[in-house]
Amino acid sequence: MAPPSQPLVEYSDSDDSDCGPPPPKLQKKTGEPKHPEAPVASLPPLPSRFHDLYAVPPRVGKEDNPALHGGRKRAIPHVQGNWPTHVFVEWHLTRAEFDTLDTLYSVAAKGASAADHTFKLESHLQSDLGSELPLHLSLSRPNVLRTEQREGFLETLSDRYHKARVKPFTVDFCGFEWVGNYDRTRWFLVLKASVVPKSELPRLLELTNRTFAVFNQPGLYGSNGDGMNGFHVSLAWSLAEPSVEVKRKVQDALLAEGGGNKILIKGKDCALKMEVGGIKVKIGNAVHVVELVAGKPTASEIETRTGKRKASVGS
Q1: pLDDT, tens only, 282-308
Q2: I need a surface site. Which of 8, 102, 184, 226 has the fewest CB within 10 A?
Q3: 3-class secondary structure for 226-271?
Q4: How would you class 24 by CB atoms within 10 Å of its CB: exposed for 0-12, middle for 13-18, buried for 19 or more?
Q5: Cβ(186)–Cβ(238) under 8 Å?
């Protein structure tokens, strides 16, 4: 093969460094610049769907190894053909909201440590690597679907949400409390959600419970929306059950920092609220979004649903 007519990349010899004119000398800047730099525009926020692409951390193994997860045990053991399923609201915090809750977590952790130096309170706000995380409000227990049930469950749940015409809404909070998981293996410091009997959260819970019942899975907080006062957003967790003294110290610390029945955002004269525009359904590692819509269904929506229903009946 003939050699190429010229090299792909030309490199200068070390002897060439002494040839040619010397580089111009840098002059020191004096006084104000002639053309002041324009302010850098802030970047637009990422679309909500972007977060779903990285919602699940990489799998480190199929076996349940608590040492890899801060001592936490898998709620649902891994079984081939079973798909852990969770329905929830995801809350991506603004900078002011994050700072407010991070400060409240810090004072709560210090209060718990003052009561019991062995009690360790871990934050839900940040990962082990320090990246900020969204918070969650659960609308279901960690349930299990079989492979052949996944599509039917998602279609049934989405159809019920849309037929109920649940509009986007806001969740208010009314202080903090401690709750344990079903197995009593972890305890959580949570923000209590304020709800009334005809608010959207009980409606969504009832629809979700009814859908899981079709697939022989238990509901959350009881059937038909009972136990609606259980709605909460977890701020921090611990493997140990908090003692009476730990609870008292944490409550005193939170109240002193403004974490009472009305939590004010730092630097703003407004209460902490969570805006809800969609519900997330996680089946295995896939995250699906069911958007909440306002108003009556459009003609195209009615036609689409009618067509889908006819197609499913004929198939």
Answers
A1: 999 999 999 998 655 544 444 444 444
A2: 8
A3: CCHHHCEEEEEEECCCCCHHHHHHHHHHHHHCCECCCEECCCCCCE
A4: exposed
A5: yes
